[in-house]
Amino acid sequence: MNYIDVKDIETIYGYKESYWIIDGKPLPDYLSEWALESKHDNLKLMEPFNGLCPAWCKELDYSGDIRWVWKLIEMDSVVLPLLLCPEDLDFTCTVIVVEVEKTKNFVYWDRIGYVLHENEDFEEEKKNGILNTSTYSDEDWEEYGYIAFENIYSPLWQEWISDHWDEELYRRCMNYTLPYYQTEGNICWIKDMNWIFDRTKYEQMVSKFRELVDRKKLENYSENDILDV
Which of 72, 128, 221, 227 could bond to 132 as cystine, CB 3.0-4.6 Å? Predict the structure, then answer.
């Protein structure tokens, strides 16, 4: 059985990030060790790992991305983003992911890797936002039915995504990005860890992580910002 916690750790750049601590060691330290052992040159290019941004933070560029990540955190079987390039703060560049499986009593982090972007199809992604009706609820049909059968070149569609970008982005992430991550061949797996965590303690870690990132966001709010924590 492994033990997982989260703590604010100082990065190589002098500021602190909330990183996962597994059996007393921060996740970036594990990644640094695995990079030395790895034959994947791309992994070495992602260093320093203790400068990457936690994907669970609430400082990502778009709230649709934040909503998506926290939806994935709740799922029982998922390829879950962990770390991102700090310069982009989205899912277009460096994305470190972990394969997660949950049972009633345990949570498994089976293997860790990074996303290969070569097979991504931006045109296909655009069709999997508000235009993907396969996931529509009755409420969706009532609210979005007027746009459901538009196309990606439609002025109405372009106007809609301009006005509702966070909803559009969340749907693209759920309908396109998540299946992309779950498809074998789109992730370069670098390590089989087979870590096992007690589910109760794991959920406590998730709650603690949420508290840490919410507190940081509150501390960084200016007077005119809109609260969304």
Answer: 128
- Is 67 a domain residue? yes
Q: What is the model's pTM?
A: 0.91
**DSSP H or E run through 25:** strand 25-26
| φ, ψ dihedrals at 144, nearest 5° | -115, 5
Task: Give the DSSP letter of residue 40.
Answer: -
Contact yes or no for 126/152 (Cβ under 8 A): yes
Residue 157 belongs to domain spanning: 120-184
- pLDDT higher than 90, residue 229: no
> Distance between CA atoms of 112 and 169, rounded to whole angstroms?
25
75 and 12 assigned to the same domain:
yes
227 has a pLDDT exceeding 70: no
Q: Are 135 and 193 members of one domain?
A: no
Per the structure, how many domains does the chain have? 2
Report the alpha-carbon distance of residue 97 to residue 111 in Å, rounded.
Answer: 9
